[in-house]
Amino acid sequence: MAGWTTLVQPDILAMALERPDVVIVDCRFSLLDPSLGEQSWRQSHIPGAVYAHLERDLSDMSRLGQGRHPWPDAAVFCNKLGRWGIAPGTQVVVYDGDDGAMAARLWFLLKTLGHEKAAVLDGGLLRWTALGLPASSVVRNPAPQRYVGHFDATRLFDAAAVEAHLAAGGLLVDARAPARFRGDEEPLDRVAGHVPGAINRPYAANLVNGQFKSPMQLAAEFRELLGTHAAADVVAMCGSGVTACHNLLAMERAGLRGAKLFTGSWSGWIADPARPIARGDS
């Protein structure tokens, strides 16, 4: 079986709950209350799902100056995968509450490890529940696995690499909402605005009625955004390197592969007050 590599639909996953090669990971997380996602998982989750905390498991919060959710160390992250029962050949399905914004972070972490069999549950737990599919409060203790891997550094950009990328004519695509991109408001970071030269593609534009748009529609929209640029000419960013992964997932669903991530994103860019800031539309 080739496996699911971008999205999986709830009814399809429901038929695979007993498969020993499938591991489901709950990524629910609230920036307003970082403990809420895990509490919700303990109360009710897709049967068998383990839990991944954005700040404890999918980031390295000890790395200063690299944004609000710094990219984790590969060895530490691989150790966590092993503890969740994930081996290099495991089919991983990740989900969050609804739109996939948190789940896409884990999806891209796996992709940069070279783990192809990773997919996001389309519509998240909200759609799973709406379809009347089963839930459980039983916390699974998976059998540990050995996972060794290295991130593909060519797909991970820091601020200096972003500056060089823009100077060479590359595209920088910001996934934040338009008001934050323009600098009209900034609820999370100390400075409002965007990286000069960036263009805006809010991650919510990838969805319709809470589900991802079709590959054909996403391909048309991203090709219009990219113009003459190839997908590999794109670096995605957001506030802290999380929701940017939603755009990376949407591009891959559309068959546009090879885009990169500005891991620190806006919060990493403004860590150095000498870096320029733009406001208004791109």
Give a concise summary.
The chain is an alpha/beta fold. The chain is 29% helix and 13% strand.
Keywords:
282 residues; alpha/beta; Oxidized Rhodanese, domain 1; five-stranded parallel β-sheet
The strand order across the widest sheet is: 1-5-4-2-3
What best-fitting shape do the alpha-carbon axes yield?
Answer: globular
Mean pLDDT: 97
CATH second-level architecture of the largest domain? 3-Layer(aba) Sandwich
User: How many β-strand stretches?
Assistant: 12
CATH superfamily of the largest domain: Rhodanese-like domain
Return the structural class. alpha/beta
Distance between the termini: 44 Å
Radius of gyration: 18 Å
Please specify the SSE layout and strand pairing.
Elements: E1 7-8, H1 10-14, E2 22-26, H2 36-43, E3 50-51, H3 74-83, E4 91-95, H4 103-112, E5 118-121, H5 124-130, E6 156-157, H6 159-167, E7 171-174, H7 178-182, E8 199-200, E9 207-208, E10 211-212, H8 215-226, E11 234-237, H9 244-253, E12 260-262, H10 265-269
Parallel strand pairs: 1-5, 2-3, 2-4, 4-5, 6-12, 7-8, 7-11, 11-12
Antiparallel strand pairs: 9-10
Helix pairs in contact: 4-9
